[in-house]
Design a protein that fits this description.
By secondary structure, the protein is mainly alpha-helical. Helix content is 70%, strand content 0%. The chain is built from ten helices and no strands. The chain has helices at 8-16, 24-35, 40-61, 63-73, 76-89, 92-97, 103-132, 140-170, 184-188, 193-210. Helix 7 crosses helix 10. The longest helix is centred in the last third of the chain and has 31 residues, at 140-170. The protein is elongated, with a radius of gyration of 23 Å. The termini are far apart.
Length: 225
């Protein structure tokens, strides 16, 4: 007896994992073809293809935001170095590490997180300000949701980078650089693999915050000339 309903997981992926809004016509066509005798393997291939095409199209449509996020992330090492110097000179970091454990570790992690998110949100607001000069529509509700999602995405990217960082350090030796000897421009112009790796959470966090700032206008929504 042949199945009349497609795999639930594949259908869920088609509805939830497409970058663009759900294409009702595509979903209906796939369901009709499946009930007409297509195999489960065929249905899975169509779903994966649709998701890949949708995300590719969405990435292309948001290429300016992604480019801005990549360029903005290049300033992140200088941002971190500046804050480290300010906090050390004011003995702020020292006072944190003099706190009893685990409060010292928790406060240090919270401080580092807020520094990173502040950098991401400043960049996002700068992009919005630049976007406003072109008189494009800005969806501030989506911007707010983007800010919230950037927190989740930043932590996920940071966890991945941390895992890779641990793997790299287990196969290398030597001490880290002294922050007191580093320069702002030297950090910005540092394109070594490890330095590039630290940019990734900032890139994906900023891109996520900006993803839906100026939604693409559908052809059906445009007013005819």
């Amino acid at each position: 007896m042949s199945r009349t309903e497609p795999p639930f997981v594949a259908t869920w992926m088609l509805e939830r994992l497409t970058a663009a809004e759900r294409d009702e016509a595509l979903a209906g066509d796939l369901l009709e073809e499946f009930r007409a005798g297509r195999s489960i393997g065929w249905y899975w291939r169509q779903v994966i293809t649709a998701i890949a095409i949708g995300w590719t199209r969405s990435i292309y449509e948001h290429r300016i935001r992604l480019l801005f996020a990549a360029i903005w992330s290049l300033l992140s090492p200088a941002w971190e170095l500046t804050l480290i110097r300010v906090f050390w000179e004011g003995d702020f970091i020292g006072s944190i590490w003099r706190m009893p454990w685990p409060w010292s570790t928790a406060c240090a992690i919270a401080l580092g997180t807020m520094e990173a998110l502040l950098f991401i949100w400043i960049g996002s607001l700068l992009y919005v300000a630049l976007l406003a000069t072109t008189r494009k529509t800005i969806d501030f509700r989506r911007l707010g949701r983007g800010f919230l999602m950037s927190i989740v995405v930043y932590f996920l990217a940071l966890a991945c980078v941390f895992a890779v960082w641990i793997t790299i350090n287990t196969h290398s030796s030597g001490n880290g650089a002294d922050w007191r000897t580093l320069s702002l421009m030297g950090e910005i112009e540092n394109f070594q693999p490890r330095a590039i790796l630290t940019h990734i959470p900032y890139v994906v966090g900023t891109a996520c915050a900006l993803w839906g700032v100026a939604p693409r206008v559908r052809k059906t929504d445009r007013v005819p000339a």
